[in-house]
Write a structure and sequence with these properties.
The chain is of the alpha+beta class. It is 37% helix and 15% strand. It has a three-stranded mixed beta sheet, with no helix packed on it. It is elongated, with a radius of gyration of 18 Å. The structure holds zinc ion (2 copies).
């Protein structure tokens, strides 16, 4: 059976599709039926990590972030 690429669902974060899933396999956690884009199960832990990092940064005073970057460079 030939799959029409237009109707393939795609993860907006890692770019995996119905025919090319993530390494280890994944399933759709959330999918938009009209755009055929969504989030796969492999990306949920990554998203949580990103969100937690963002939240941490939002609660860090700006001067501390600048200092932090200065040390790395
Ligand atoms: Zn994904
Ligand atoms: Zn995936």
């Amino acid at each position: 059976m030939k799959i029409n690429p237009k109707h393939e669902r795609r993860c907006v974060y890692c770019g995996c599709t119905d025919s090319k899933a993530c390494v280890g396999g994944c399933s759709w956690v959330q999918i938009h039926e009209h755009t055929h884009t969504g989030v796969c199960s492999q990306c949920i832990p990554r998203l949580v990590t990103t969100l937690m990092d963002l939240t941490k940064r939002l609660h860090t005073p700006l001067h501390e972030l600048i200092q932090d970057n200065a040390y790395r460079n």
